[in-house]
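Protocol step 4 of 6: structure prediction from sequence.
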Amino acid sequence: MRPRSLLILAAAVPALFCACSCSQDDNIIVTPPATMPTNELGITRFIAMGDGGEGNDTQYAVSRAVEGVCEASGCDFVLYMGDNIYSDGAESPTDPMFESRFELPYENLDLPFYVVLGNHDYGGNSAMFWRAQHEIDYTEHSEKWNMPSAYYTFRYGDVQLFGLDTNALMWGMSSAQEAWFSREVAASEVGWKVAFGHHPYRSNGRHGNAGDYEGFSHIPVASGNSIQRFFEERMCGEVDLYLCGHDHNRQWIDGGCRDEDGEGLTTELIVSGTAAKTTDLADRGNPVHFENDEIAGFVWVEATSQEITAVFYDELGNEEFRRVVGR
């Protein structure tokens, strides 16, 4: 096993989502090297983007823009938020698409990528659930790709990050993940808690809001009702920020989400699903601080001891919007 740069506490997807080899151990610990990196004054900086996995010109353009921003402002890692191998996931851990749709487009980025699964990584419309394991196993074949399990948590400085398998949540087949998430969030003693996954809780994109995905509010599973329940019972107000993709545009939802009683701290909600393409926004009624469906891009995040700053950039490296959230 190759060394990891960060402490990772990982837990696996339920057995129904894996054909054979998914671990059920929810206490996998990889010890970091003694020189675990830390930034000046405890600052953590990272990129968040999803829905790459095309190997197209846009994915390469976004990668170059990320390189420029990281050279100018600093980056410690990338959160890569699903739909990593279009359109039906990988056929094996050595599938050549890992090279053409991940390694080559990001060859210029000397950063660890922390990866979660999207619906296309599960086989897209074909629902080949076992293909998710190939992306987990690819961790052992890459110096850049990190997905120790279908869901996991790691800490960097004063930030703890929780990578989620929202596909399992959507299908209502992840009670172990839900219990793990609540336990790990409650046990965390860091200053900032950041979750990342593929599916949104609120979005003005074509997929829309959890509980009404695609307008299917009366159809269980397809509506995302299980994701809505997870957020409202376990996520909202418990973490400071949730980042996702799925809709191929970029948004910062105004108001975020709160716990099931509508009280407590707000969880900020950001959609960043334009690592390789864009799709139009729709009229979903969510107020926003910012939204853009005209050009691809990404989000750069900086966390200090007292505030989180998120900046939206387009594929040309132009800054579009920034906002600071304090404690």
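Step 5 (inspection) to follow. The first strand starts at residue 8 and ends at 11.
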